[in-house]
Design a protein that fits this description.
It is built from eight helices and 21 strands.
């Protein structure tokens, strides 16, 4: 694959604060990248640096073999062949749809302009609205106009800042599929910013997780979800719940029982946080914890229901450990997530166990 975008050791300072720090990123031609991370992590600043709206303090940006920014070069935004779609679309309300699309291609001849506009109107299903003004369009139609205007100059790279945040939830998934197919039809390389990981799964080929101006992990969405490289990545993406465990050479002890996790050879760690997905939890046969005949500690309740909601996957429960004088507080857990068809009641005590699997755990809850 050919690299369309190459970023090396990019740093950006805004008001003496380093917003991006030594960031490296390579994106192949035709790929769609989803940038995710908490507010203030540097996602939009990265887009602005690529587009030419923010000047990096150090590092290099190269698009299609052309150096756009380094110590010797700084190409202004209008000469970068980078299209940008803002969160509010930034369409011109006093112009029609056709005039909005034509705005960025004034340097073309009238014939060339008309050919480009007609093509985009047809592909984006906007022919019936070409003479309409922006306020006369739905949110989805406005987004199509913004995309048409960005594509009209035939950019090498398209940047989208939270492009689906203003779309009604019912239409969002349908529109994401439609726009993805459109970008693939144009063989367009694109980067979009979002707070919603589900949008990345639907829309993107690659995912980049950012925190505090750094790139934590870059890979396909499926690989990142199956194998997050840090506690912070797994926690931000909400890939599961966290179960504290004490680990030694004999295995791991948790409030849900002992697990087949051993300390690595030569490693002396004693505390880990195990990532537990709802599908890895078993809600065992409920027992009467007050029964005099119940002497099997393996069937005693070990969690209580703290929250109940109803979803398309059944009941969703959030559970915490049952507190008692004998509870090891270093192993206490909260907000353990479980889906089940069994109807439970608030504060009900239940017994949980974990399905044996390739356990994913982290010794440090930091970065």
């Amino acid at each position: 694959m050919t690299a369309l975008l190459s970023i090396q050791q990019l740093s950006v300072k805004l008001q003496d604060k380093e917003v991006l720090s030594s960031l490296d990123l390579t994106l192949n031609a035709g790929d769609i990248l989803g940038l995710v991370g908490a507010s203030g992590c540097g996602k939009t600043t990265l887009l602005n640096a690529i587009a030419g709206f923010s000047k990096p303090s150090t590092g290099q940006i190269v698009i299609d073999g052309k150096v756009l920014s380094d110590k010797q070069h700084y190409v202004p935004a209008e000469n970068r062949q980078v299209g940008m779609i803002f969160q509010d679309y930034a369409l011109f309300p006093h112009l029609t749809v056709k005039e909005n699309i034509a705005f960025g291609i004034a340097q073309l001849t009238q014939t060339e302009q008309q050919q480009q506009i007609d093509s985009l109107l047809t592909i984006l299903k906007l022919n019936d609205y070409q003479n309409s003004y922006i306020h006369q369009l739905s949110g989805g139609q406005q987004q199509r106009v913004a995309i048409a205007r960005a594509l009209a100059p035939k950019p090498k790279l398209l940047l989208l800042d939270e492009p689906f945040s203003n779309i009604d939830a019912r239409l969002r998934n349908e529109l994401m599929v439609e726009i993805r197919q459109l970008l693939k039809q144009f063989d367009m390389t694109a980067i979009f910013v979002t707070h919603n990981k589900d949008e990345v799964f639907t829309f993107a080929d690659k995912m980049a997780v950012m925190a505090q101006g750094k790139l934590l992990q870059f890979d396909t969405p499926s690989i990142i979800c199956q194998a997050p490289n840090s506690y912070q990545v797994a926690d931000f993406l909400q890939l599961g719940s966290w179960l504290p465990c004490n680990v030694d050479e004999n295995g791991a002890q948790s409030l849900l029982g002992n697990l087949d996790i051993s300390a690595e050879h030569g490693t002396q760690f004693s505390k880990v946080h195990l990532l537990v997905k709802p599908s890895q939890l078993i809600l065992n046969t409920l027992v009467d914890e007050n029964s005099d005949t119940n002497t099997n500690t393996n069937t005693k309740p070990n969690a209580q229901v703290d929250y109940i909601s109803v979803t398309e996957q059944g009941y969703h429960y959030s559970l915490s450990n049952i507190d008692s004088p004998s509870t090891d507080q270093s192993l206490a857990f909260s907000k353990l997530s479980l889906y089940s068809d069994i109807a439970l009641s608030l504060k009900q005590h239940v017994q949980l166990s974990i399905i044996p699997h390739n356990f994913l755990y982290f010794t440090n809850r930091g970065v």
